[in-house]
Design brief:
Pfam families: DCB
Number of strands: 0
Radius of gyration: 18 Å
CATH topology: Transcription Elongation Factor S-II, Chain A
Number of domains: 1
Organism: Aegilops tauschii subsp. strangulata (Goatgrass)
Strand content: under 5%
Protein name: Mon2/Sec7/BIG1-like dimerisation and cyclophilin-binding domain-containing protein
Number of helices: 9
């Protein structure tokens, strides 16, 4: 790492990322936690190529299935960092898989209260980041939405974030700035599909 001081160089090499992903694939809790911690540092420093997203999501999905609480929490922490970085999902498939990991840990009967609460917070924050990106891409007016409460189930969390973003949409309608779906950017279309899914989820 010292010899590769440029994050782009590290991202292009890909060898370092593979080492940490291999550590995670051993399915040892200790190695996986270390691997995810190192992965978080790489992502935070933009030292991971965008093409690696699918492999990272697959690794996080596998770890979400492991029964260790510390590993589940580290998985959720890594997921949020992904959404905060240049790796944030930009396709419907990747978005579905990423948010699905949060929902799985939120709804799983094997999850502890700590994991459920963290999964709810991670899901809400991840969706908020997606909608923030939509607001920027579509040049929508920004309103002061009240913070969403943490819910205990997927439907309540979805209801909270839907209501929050709905305030922004209402403001956009009042300004007459929300265009038809055909005129939306790819980011806007993805956000709209996510909003439709959240609305359906909130409705049960």
């Amino acid at each position: 790492l010292r010899s590769l001081s440029n994050p782009r160089e590290i991202a292009q090499k890909g060898d370092i990322l593979r080492i940490f992903l291999m550590a995670c694939s051993v399915k040892s809790v200790k190695l996986s936690v270390i691997g995810l911690s190192c992965l978080q540092k790489l992502i935070s420093h933009d030292a991971v190529a965008s093409s690696a997203l699918k492999e990272i999501l697959a690794t996080l999905r596998d770890h979400s299935e492991m029964p260790d609480e510390s590993l589940q929490l580290k998985t959720l922490q890594t997921m949020l960092i992904v959404f905060q970085s240049h790796l944030r999902p930009e396709s419907e498939e990747d978005m579905s898989q990423a948010l699905g990991i949060c929902l799985h840990l939120l709804e799983s009967s094997r999850s502890s209260d700590s994991v459920r609460n963290t999964a709810a917070a991670t899901f809400r924050q991840a969706v908020a980041l997606v909608f923030d990106n939509v607001v920027l891409a579509e040049s929508l007016p920004t309103g002061k939405a009240s913070p969403a409460r943490l819910g205990s189930s997927a439907s309540s969390v979805a209801n909270n974030v839907t209501r929050s973003f709905g305030q922004t949409l209402s403001l956009a309608f009042s300004y007459g700035e929300l265009t038809m779906r055909e005129d939306l950017t790819d980011v806007g279309k993805l956000g709209l599909r996510l909003l439709e899914d959240l609305t359906a989820l909130a409705a049960g």
